[in-house]
From TrEMBL:
Gene3D superfamilies: Glycogen Phosphorylase B. It comes from the Bacteria. GO terms for molecular function: glycosyltransferase activity. Keywords: Glycosyltransferase, Transferase. Residues 217-371 form the Glycosyl transferase family domain. One of its GO terms (biological process) is carbohydrate derivative biosynthetic process. SUPFAM superfamilies: UDP-Glycosyltransferase/glycogen phosphorylase. This is D-inositol 3-phosphate glycosyltransferase. It comes from Microbacterium ulmi.
Amino acid sequence: MTPPEHPEPESRPALTVLIGADTFLPHVNGAARFAERLAAGLVKRGHDVHVMAPSDGHRNHGTFIETIEGQPLTMHRLASWRWYPHDWLTFVLPWMSKHHARKALDSVKPDVVHIQSHIVIGRGLAREAHKRGIPIIATNHVMAENVLDFTTLPPALNKVLLKFAWDDAKRTFDRTRAVTTPTRKAADFLEATIDIEGVIPVSCGIDAAEYTADLTPRDANRIVFVGRLTTEKQIDVVLRAIAKLDPALDVTFDIVGNGDQRRNLEQLTHQLGLDERVTFHGHTSDQELRDLLTRASLFAIASVAELQSIATMEAMASGLPIVAANAVALPHLVHDGENGYLFTPGDVDELAARLTDVLTAEPEERLRMQRASLDGVKIHDMKRTLDTFEALYRDEPLPE
């Protein structure tokens, strides 16, 4: 009998994987959530996973076992400092990144390195791993333009910084075996921006079974948004659109998350006369988040800088119609007229019209959109994502 080209996954030796992440718990954002789920998923499959990430502060560093997504992970917490223009961001000193990388590589001796950004930790780790001939996989979650909100530099210098950032990203990615990013649109963006080829779209993935869809008619019109309260999310556009809705709809808006724009958004809420209709929940537990999604009428996102949007996938897994800006990767998740509607970014009147379309839809139409969301999120199953990265780590053909 001819032996199989590859042994069954159960019989393959476990890999030692070193993940470098510039953002990770306790940070709350899509890139951090992906890195956490990836690391935990790999541990659950039997791999030895180590994560390099910033510490809570420059004194709380060292190597620890932490429970992430229910799995024990070996965390290499690096001394980091708070970036004060940002409300939560901590960073590792750039000139220390190679030192930290050498120390971790000496200790872990990984089979493969997987960096989650090209900025500080990922940059140093990629350069040191490349010197040692260790395979490197890079996942890009970054649009450098997003970082410019927090530089405090004048526009002319921001332009120079942006060019430097993308040039440096190319130098980092040129050292890798493969570069991935969450969607085909994001891959096209990256290839056009830094002149590289073969960027592989790999969904961040989601365990849809963790979310509950309520397909029954709603007793109230509740809109929900989940994410960081930052400029590029354009939550002000959603607030202004809600202010234009027919008062008879009696709409409420749940905002889940924190960010540097929270105070400005609270002030805008008051100016628009929406104090009784808008609730800022801040950070919630996972269960509270899922409950808010389950009981909502729809999910609204006006962001213009999403490379995928885990929050939108969570809403889809909760059976919600989605109203989203027609920008970057959101059209990859939201198919206009199927599981919701797209609107022109920043167009308050168009957003208000699309929100009205969903909130006034007949029960059969709403149910059709809900089922389309549930069907659409199936291709983002976390198992498929883990299968793909395991194949990249082993340099094997990718699953279809």
